[in-house]
């Protein structure tokens, strides 16, 4: 079996050309900030961490993004948001450091349990944070560096700091972490450092790969097959023996001399890696499937840009974010904000509205109204109604997003403009 897998992994890169380009859609972000990390807590709700301590949120599956304001008294010294990880639509962590030149002092992490309405400073032992990985909403790990340099891991249990593990006193950071289950995980970082635990972080064994370059991120496909991206034109590397040995994925990946920064594995065992080409510095995406591990390629043709992070909102939809506010997804938004779905016709009037709206459709089960920063401003059960009137005299003028849930759990969205 292992020999078969190695043969499959040596298949040359498949260039799909311009026929693949339309499958990746650019989303207008209305920002030029560097976008450093993306995470979805549900299929509809996602978050992007950006430079300048800016956090973006979507409540419509990624088609529209709005800024979430965070109390400066919680954050303190303004830094970039270098990592976001949400375990649900409401529960998640964000990490502050500098995206271009991380430091090992005065960094912070905060978490929310209400979708970003309020934030609490996270209990972290190290001071050179760079990332977070949670195994559920209350338990997980922070990783990065200690105050005086050194690769460091903090364990969090029930949202409380448990202990710190120092893995190396040299300069540098741990930059990526993934767990196959609650006990078995791997963390990676600068100088080709790889550490593995099989006892939920009580002990971390040192693995010595053949690559001295920085490991940017790591993801399990299964308990033995693991992919990682490194800061090198070899870029995508893999292990077929649970991380004991590593090898580069086919030399043909060097055609565009890509340097990948982030990767994600779908539940369908498709691996997506994002970064940039070192020839022209254009943003790039690679993706391959377990059926043969041949690879497709997308080149955004945007010079001097790079994708920095990739995430999935469900088993098939992928989002890649990067420099100068670039956001791409692999599918068009055909029905996410649409008056008509295949099952039901949705009418909302007047729109723009002043003090009320009327909603007409079939078998309406629930109405939810969001402000464009993702806050729920109204929820109302309708008991399979076909027409509902909602009074809105207490809401400020602006744009809102109406979510209509039908009896069969079909969901439709509609943008509403309110002018008092």
Summarize this, please?
The protein has 420 residues and is an all-beta fold.
Mean pLDDT: 85
* Structural domain count: 2
Strand content: over 45%
CATH hierarchy class name of the largest domain: Mainly Beta
Shape: globular
The CA-CA distance between the termini, in Å, is: 67 Å
CATH architecture of the largest domain: 7 Propeller
Structural class estimated from helices and strands: mainly beta
CATH topology annotation of the largest domain:
Methylamine Dehydrogenase, Chain H
Give the name of the CATH superfamily of the largest domain: YVTN repeat-like/Quinoprotein amine dehydrogenase
Low-confidence stretches: 1-22, 335-342
Main beta sheet, described?
A: 5 strands, antiparallel
CA gyration radius, whole angstroms: 22 Å
Continuous helix count: 2
- For the secondary structure, the number of strands is 33
- Can you give the helix content as a percent range? under 10%
Write the layout of secondary structure elements.
Layout: H1 2-9, E1 25-27, E2 35-40, E3 46-50, E4 55-58, E5 66-68, H2 72-75, E6 80-86, E7 92-97, E8 108-112, E9 120-121, E10 128-134, E11 140-145, E12 151-157, E13 160-168, E14 174-179, E15 185-189, E16 194-197, E17 205-207, E18 215-220, E19 226-230, E20 236-239, E21 247-248, E22 258-265, E23 270-277, E24 283-289, E25 295-299, E26 307-312, E27 318-322, E28 327-329, E29 347-349, E30 356-371, E31 376-391, E32 398-406, E33 411-418
Antiparallel strand pairs: 1-28, 2-3, 3-4, 4-5, 6-7, 7-8, 8-9, 10-11, 11-12, 12-13, 14-15, 15-16, 16-17, 18-19, 19-20, 20-21, 22-23, 23-24, 24-25, 26-27, 27-28, 29-30, 30-31, 30-32, 32-33
